Amino acid sequence: xxxxxxxxxxxxxxxxxxxxxxxxxxxxxxxxxxxxxxxxxxxxxxxxxxxxxxxxxxxxxxxxxxxxxxxxxxxxxxxxxxxxxxxxxxxxxxxxxxxxxxxxxxxxxxxxxxxxxxxxxxxxxxxxxxxxxxxxxxxxxxxxxxxxxxxxxxxxxxxxxxxxxxxxxxxxxxxxxxxxxxxxxxxxxxxxxxxxxxxxxxxxxxxxxxxxxxxxxxxxxxxxxxxxxxxxxxxxxxxxxxxxxxxxxxxxxxxxxxxxxxxxxxxxxxxxxxxxxxxxxxxxxxxxxxxxxxxxxxxxxxxxxxxxxxxxxxxxxxxxxxxxxxxxxxxxxxxxxxxxxxxxxxxxxxxxxxxxxxxxxxxxxxxxxxxxxxxxxxxxxxxxxxxxxxxxxxxxxxxxxxxxxxx
Length: 407
Prior knowledge:
Elements: H1 3-11, H2 14-45, E1 56-63, H3 70-83, E2 87-92, E3 103-107, E4 121-128, H4 132-136, E5 140-143, E6 152-154, E7 164-168, H5 169-175, E8 185-186, E9 196-202, E10 218-225, E11 230-237, H6 242-256, E12 260-267, H7 268-275, H8 277-311, H9 313-321, H10 326-362, H11 372-387, H12 389-396, H13 400-406
């Protein structure tokens, strides 16, 4: 089949041709970029934190009574929590993964020399005692756990004064690419010129900040805060006991010490859900947008092609009278549609990367991988061919005699 007559026929309907080409180009740009963002956000939301989220929850305590002693309160609370039926373990800590709040530092291999030349590795700090690995549900893959005599106290006057630290595998690889992180000394935890020894490596513990570029670099620090009146507990229950224990913990802690408020009993799963709420909303909106664009484009092709069939009854009848078979008519319209979609894809390719460049500037999006464009083009092309099946079938069904009477 010669393409020139088909292209000439298309050029006699420039307005319709322009509308379909523009619609296909915009649809291709929206689908490629939206799908990329949805996939990226889905991977982000699905990242494992490294801890046993299903069976853990947090509870906050704030003392208000005169003479409230945080050190004594923490010791009593931990003894109470660890003795409760259904509780596997508990620690006091400053934060949990996906909470979007906490402490961080830049661990380094050299002391601070007063210049900007030192390379620090962004590290989230989880303060806890020797029960942290079990309470968080982590796995020690190298080295050893903290000893009770290594647990320090954190205050504004002293800062972090510990001598040992446990790091994640990701942080260990960043600090020591050749391996053997255990036993090595690092700087930057508390006093910049004080060495801290890595005694263990855990498999994985995500940072609290879900948007962090170094999300897997974290460290367990053996220290307990003794300043102020606030403490946060992380409680890990036996499987299936979380909801029952959550309902009892608040009342038990409040009854044990009337000089404080116990509040914000939250499952870690709820903390995660709250942190990723915007990501899920964006995924839903973009998915709906993609679906709407596909439907609008498909209906536009159906409507315009149907209109063209109606206007070209005489031409179709003439071709049928000259011997064109139904298949020839159908192939004519399918080819015509293919040319339109092809022009839209060419224009849409430039529009797709232009849109992606704007997103990189506007919302710090990532560069669009190359394979999204051919995949999106294939989807749009198949959509166009499916949309034209009905109108092409109706055109092929026009009998030559009826076409002649219509003329």
